[in-house]
């Protein structure tokens, strides 16, 4: 009797979990599903066929979602609904507050006082389709994905599993290799500190290699480890911002635990030779980590083809929500980490804490969209990047692009305007959202450490502006910004005595300035 009861209970749980997964699919997909309902109060099983009620194709076309003619900045996602299954008291046809029916382009506003947004390296607007996918998990599908005894938990778990697969697909990984975190900063900390501490304890490895132009969270993680007794090699970069491969290989020692080199630089957009670095690390059996926050979803990445052991991902840099990220951790050959957070042992024991289902679902959807639309986004961004650069440099002299022009992500354009202070230029361009350097460090009046690592003079480093172009940027916005930049630089230079001297043919480097 006991065996039979146990078997029935197992069957009930199995069927209920299948129902939960199907219910999640119904909320996200227009296909009809067959739902199996568990009645916990009567401990019986009943199967009920229910058809999802979704926006018909004609309505979807009218809304602009899935319409090939729909242009960037004009997304009008349809609102998908699902019939409520019997026995759970949910009504997915009830529209949540803040439904994205009214959402158009995230960066456009009817309010005339909103600045033009060209700061896509600081953050990207959340794609309306991502918002739409997330909404049910704030209201009806609110279960804890770690609750294993009821359907609320099972349906959330199914949604998390789906998102994990979507993230993995984008980078060529196995879903089991994806660890959800709060963002790229946590992922970088976990990767570098986790690997370094584990392999020092297990194998006596106490050496780390990185570059001078990494994101602050990587550099600061390395400095913390230095204070803890680790040795860190900070590799210089060339004038174009790329690290020399021979420098990477020469720095590797028997006690090297990890090499960390970012994929795309957040200030200048330079793409590092990640594939070649991965080959070097694999040859020397050293773990290779890359901060790919600015690269995932924008350029093709394959963790296996590039021999990457750990990869950091950020949700809000790929048109997903803030507060969510991921760390890819290779399973074969296995990479071991010492966790930073103690607790319930979620995420393979590497990152304890309840997984935030709505944010995870948003990240998964953002990665799915990126995988499907990367080529289109790349073409769009590249065209606007060239248009912006041409619109500025054809009318202004003494403008320098920072970083490699050949090995770069076109959506990040860093320009220095000689004889103009970057902060003054930003103030003159108050109706354009721009940055002078990284948003994480631009509060400092010190010149960009990234540009100084490239060998830029302080005056050129101080005069740099970063233009970030993305999925929702339009030609009209780029043209307007180019006009505004040309006007502002021209006015500021007219007020500069240095510019006047240059116009008179005086070489400023030959002048001996008196001290005060």
UniProtKB/TrEMBL annotation:
It catalyses: (sulfur carrier)-H + L-cysteine = (sulfur carrier)-SH + L-alanine. Pfam families: Aminotran_5 (PF00266). Keywords: Iron, Iron-sulfur, Metal-binding, Mitosome, Pyridoxal phosphate, Transferase. The keyword Metal-binding applies. Its cofactor is pyridoxal 5'-phosphate. It is found in: Mitosome. One of its GO terms (cellular component) is mitochondrion. Residues 116-481 form the Aminotransferase class V domain. GO terms for molecular function: cysteine desulfurase activity; iron-sulfur cluster binding; metal ion binding; pyridoxal phosphate binding. GO terms for biological process: [2Fe-2S] cluster assembly; tRNA thio-modification; tRNA wobble uridine modification. Its main location: other. Residues 48-114 are annotated as: Disordered. InterPro entries: Aminotrans_V_dom, Aminotrans_V_PyrdxlP_BS, Cys_deSase_IscS, PyrdxlP-dep_Trfase, PyrdxlP-dep_Trfase_major, PyrdxlP-dep_Trfase_small. Its EC number is 2.8.1.7. Residues 48-63, 77-86 have a biased composition (Low complexity). Belongs to the class-V pyridoxal-phosphate-dependent aminotransferase family. NifS/IscS subfamily. NCBIfam families: IscS, PRK02948.1, PRK14012.1. Catalyzes the removal of elemental sulfur from cysteine to produce alanine. It supplies the inorganic sulfur for iron-sulfur (Fe-S) clusters in mitosomes. This is Cysteine desulfurase, mitosomal.
